[in-house]
Amino acid sequence: MKAKEEGIVVEINNMYDEYWAVAHASPTDLPYFEGDYWVGLAEELIEKLDEEGKSAKKKKDHKTKKPKHLAKKDARDDVDFHDQLMLKLGEHIHPMKDDFLVVKLFPSCAQCKLAIHHGTIWKESKTCLCDGCYQTQMSTQSNVNETPPYVPIKLTLKEKCSDPDDVVESEIFDTRQAFLSLCQANHYQFDELRRAKHTSMLTLFHLGQLTNG
């Protein structure tokens, strides 16, 4: 994408590949914004799981079933999710995972998953580690030659810019749902550059109309 090519964002991934990679994944790890689809879906699934739990007999040594939608070559074939809700959410999210984008403005550590805002990052070909995880890995690694060749990169925040324009308040941007409703009603989209430009111009038009009365 153009934003990644211009260095505005660091990484673009989908939510499924980002958060359904390990067995201990939890719904509390998922990013949440007002009006998100997965939140309403989770509430429905919780009710269904509660009903199933009441009607089903308690079984010992119950093993979590693997999602049927995963292909045989998928790296997560062997993942047995500890959280039933995470399993059910994954079954619904996976078929449309490309619609759930995760855009990172800062690099994140491949081990602790935390965003790295400053300090030293250790970059490998496809992943990076924060300084803490890298030092821990090096101290526990028996054979240094087995460690991938990480390159240290000093990360510094860009200077904050000041906006000389006055803040313009608008009901369009009061909530995420309000802006989503505007886009849905007028068929505004951001999936292509030309559509994003068109949507931005018309959004500014609506903003100007509301501001001027």
From TrEMBL:
<keyword id="KW-0805">Transcription regulation</keyword>
<dbReference type="GO" id="GO:0005667">
    <property type="term" value="C:transcription regulator complex"/>
</dbReference>
<dbReference type="InterPro" id="IPR031162">
    <property type="entry name" value="CBP_P300_HAT"/>
</dbReference>
<keyword id="KW-0539">Nucleus</keyword>
<feature type="region of interest" description="Disordered">
    <location>
        <begin position="52"/>
        <end position="73"/>
    </location>
</feature>
<keyword id="KW-0804">Transcription</keyword>
<dbReference type="GO" id="GO:0031490">
    <property type="term" value="F:chromatin DNA binding"/>
</dbReference>
<dbReference type="InterPro" id="IPR013178">
    <property type="entry name" value="Histone_AcTrfase_Rtt109/CBP"/>
</dbReference>
<protein>
    <recommendedName>
        <fullName>histone acetyltransferase</fullName>
        <ecNumber>2.3.1.48</ecNumber>
    </recommendedName>
</protein>
<keyword id="KW-0808">Transferase</keyword>
<feature type="compositionally biased region" description="Basic residues">
    <location>
        <begin position="56"/>
        <end position="71"/>
    </location>
</feature>
<keyword id="KW-0156">Chromatin regulator</keyword>
<dbReference type="GO" id="GO:0005634">
    <property type="term" value="C:nucleus"/>
</dbReference>
<dbReference type="GO" id="GO:0000123">
    <property type="term" value="C:histone acetyltransferase complex"/>
</dbReference>
<dbReference type="GO" id="GO:0045944">
    <property type="term" value="P:positive regulation of transcription by RNA polymerase II"/>
</dbReference>
<dbReference type="GO" id="GO:0004402">
    <property type="term" value="F:histone acetyltransferase activity"/>
</dbReference>
<feature type="domain" description="CBP/p300-type HAT">
    <location>
        <begin position="1"/>
        <end position="212"/>
    </location>
</feature>
<dbReference type="GO" id="GO:0003713">
    <property type="term" value="F:transcription coactivator activity"/>
</dbReference>
